[in-house]
Amino acid sequence: MILDKVNSPGDLKCLNLEELNTLADEMREFIIKKVNATGGHMGPNLGILETTIAMHYVFNSPVDKIVFDVSHQCYPHKILTGRKEGFTNPDMYFKYTGYTAPEESEHDIFKVGHTSTSVSLACGLAKARDLKGGCENVIALIGDGSLSGGEAFEGLDNAADLASNIIIIVNDNDMSIAENHGGLYKNLKELRESKGKCECNFFKSLGFDYIYVDEGNNIQEVIKALQKVKDINHPVVVHIKTLKGHGLKQAEQNKEAFHWIVPGMLDEQQSAPTVLPEDYNSVTKEFIMKKARQDKTLVVVNPATPGVHGFDPEFRQKLGRQYVDVGIAEEHAIAFSSALAKAGAKPVLAIMTSFVQRTYDQISQDLCLNNSPLTMLVYWGGLSNADATHLGSYDISMISNIPNIVYLAPASKEEYLAMLEYSYNQTEHSVAIRVPNTELISTGKKDDTDYSILNKYKVEYEGEKIAILGLGNFFKLAQDVKDEIKTKLNIDATLINPRFITGTDDELLENLKKNHQLVITLEDGILDGGFGEKIARYYGNSDMKVLNFGGKKEFTDRVPLEELYRRYHLTKELIVDDVKNCL
Amino acid sequence: MILDKVNSPGDLKCLNLEELNTLADEMREFIIKKVNATGGHMGPNLGILETTIAMHYVFNSPVDKIVFDVSHQCYPHKILTGRKEGFTNPDMYFKYTGYTAPEESEHDIFKVGHTSTSVSLACGLAKARDLKGGCENVIALIGDGSLSGGEAFEGLDNAADLASNIIIIVNDNDMSIAENHGGLYKNLKELRESKGKCECNFFKSLGFDYIYVDEGNNIQEVIKALQKVKDINHPVVVHIKTLKGHGLKQAEQNKEAFHWIVPGMLDEQQSAPTVLPEDYNSVTKEFIMKKARQDKTLVVVNPATPGVHGFDPEFRQKLGRQYVDVGIAEEHAIAFSSALAKAGAKPVLAIMTSFVQRTYDQISQDLCLNNSPLTMLVYWGGLSNADATHLGSYDISMISNIPNIVYLAPASKEEYLAMLEYSYNQTEHSVAIRVPNTELISTGKKDDTDYSILNKYKVEYEGEKIAILGLGNFFKLAQDVKDEIKTKLNIDATLINPRFITGTDDELLENLKKNHQLVITLEDGILDGGFGEKIARYYGNSDMKVLNFGGKKEFTDRVPLEELYRRYHLTKELIVDDVKNCL
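The joint structure predicted for all components is written out below.
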């Protein structure tokens, strides 16, 4: 096996073209096998395989610096930079992350998992090099949809101005996670069709030198192009056309489904689709479809993550012009939706917690300052075993401290539907709903709460001495804690479902003082800046004791959820221990 | 006076060209007089005057929708839309804000004050129109530097894809607040020089139809262009070359100084520059200049706001390649600086509180997750009488709940210098310093604190019963409160200068329990998600009472600071009243 001889990029340089091609085949096989076993990004890594070999053949990493955008397409890079065991040895499959990670290798410069950052980061490396008098190449590898993010443009605009070496490799596979949208992608198409020769050229307009490579999955062609730009003394874009999923038939044919796959996807037998159990995604889709049929101004807005929300191609097609995928452009998604609402349409914006972080200012200025009645659905909020780049536990602290927005945390299907209905029909507030990331919980009882009365918490059980506020995802835990307190401490605790994240129910909190001595708060997110601290502040001048339970402000990286729950005292046993110590 | 006859845009339509030109002269005179009296945006409004008249002559606002980017260039628009008294009558000078404000007029669609948002907002209006079957024109007026912001690009990319009417007017005055930077502005220059005919055209590359207007301060020429695009059925860019400060010699000649002026700037006599008193800007500049001479890898990074920091042209010139203005591109500024730091250079990033909001995700992902040792100076943090669009009171809640970053709040010149020195020399953390927005306070005593020992608060005076934590700007207030408590309550309170915003000094807080019964926190920002709540959470399970003082989570709009202090109980008298009630 050629791969046996390759332990670092330097080892590539003595291989001939035939060997490089054989190496590509070997790597492809390992990637397919590994990703199918563990789940992960399949299409992006197969598409970029040959380019990665060519990059490491031509350049001299880690002296030359390669910055991967999103870095979900770094698997071939990992194989070539001393981490092949993570792909060849099933026992090591989980040793390395799916993203670049400086702690793993000197060939990884940044920890990256969000899109559109590589050009800015490369600019910084290039500027530092120039100040220090170095002469290494600085390369940003961007593409697979991430060019549409504003940060990428800010980076390109500045990179073009650099009077020295910076090489932007655009991996153009004509795809984002789903299909691409936007004027830029039309230009890329024209460039591909004219083999880089059409009159309008986005990159040239910004002042970049430009090279087009039509066969981006042909190692020899990519090597030729990169050799031309190596040690170049000015900014250049190398536009490489690749095939997402290259070399795996299913992935080539179904690019969206194979962008990121669950384990075993290749092994699954073709069978008639079974009826899927109801979950929060299906409930959401059903609500949207029903409303969309009644009201032609309902528009679903989504920044390039339809899969997360279960917005499958059939659903999107049915919605037609009432579905807008704005591409990877979260800032635009917020401003666009705000204006839709302002103009009397009914936008429903679906966005992931980890990516809503890209829109603080837009939520504040474009949305909340204008009080646009948007319905924003925030998915995957909560502690998780995710990569450090994709944590979902910061949304409460980010969103809930912005004025005017109403951020809601439903604890059941019925509450969720009532909140959707409320948000959809009202015109007073920007409303965000934290879609539960739990299994679907149904009370079986319609929720007839009037959510227009803001910040009214629901007392689910009136007890004494201890009051438990269990927010959204953690309401179930609060119920368990209540039972545990009864068993262990023989106290009949009060159980409260706050539902409103963005404000305190002062009347209720005041009343609790009468026959309670301890309030505990449970939230599925970090404590800093979160819900519980507001309760602690409220009771600061009183005799009421307050215990806040939630996550710690830290970047956790693929830590199993059970371990996080232990670490943060988020099991009923640990919580009741803390309660005992406090009484 | 022609202006006497103009009370709404409709009144323009019966004027002939000569009358329109006279009207422009009248409006110019009023704008100059008013802005010189009150302070405000001079150059931008003089530059856009003729275009605004042409827009309202050709289009039919408020049926046709005009969205102003940043909206600091909306003064002529306000004059033409029923608010001329705000310019002609000195008693009414302060009646209207300097930005578009829907509460003032149906011709203002959004409250806007941050850049780069207009295209996205216009996209939303256009999409809503299409869903509702309307046929009005939707116009975004962008320019004066704001094209470089990522949100603008995301908007353009999506606007170009719209299959219906959207008109983007690019006001190209070759300036940002200071000079422009970046590849895009080179392209605009080529387009101006070729009168719109050069081969590379940024807007066409995105798929826009395109019209160039060389004489953007000639009403007739702009009218002709706008008449061509009125009721167009596809996306079009009208690129208009204007002269910033048009018609006011000083403003034409010194575009940067006249972008925004203080009252009376035109009246000032030419005189030899007097020696300015020392302030936090001068201290910062001196520190930077000293270090820059010693270390050629120091780079000052700034997103287009040099004036805020006192980075005058002389200072910038002296720094040469060690000064990088990235243009209005805050996201890039963070990622770029993070990479500079990672590569061993010494970035010092200067940014305004209100605009740091544009970078939550970049601070989290590009910077903190990578622990890049950046020095970030955050200016103008604190409560203020600013417009709702430019509040500086949200930075603590935004920045301090992100992991890894060390956010420092100095209370004196000496602490500030020691923190700068610490941050500059260390390589462990991303450090942000909240540059005091107070007058310079000097203790006269060098601060020799070792800031590498994180979260260590300084006990300035050891008393009993009550402990006062006065953060940064509010340390002075804490001193006053201490004295007031002595006078009114005869209690010798403990005085603490926390200095670290991002963490609690648990040892100190624990020790306070011994002989204190109340801790009060003072912070110059909103309470929600802020510093004080962390202290309240810490003491939640104890008998210690806690009172948090700070601002309320709300958009205040030009409310005098004294009123805010009263509203939030931020005077020593009101604080001591609350303390009395709590004891």
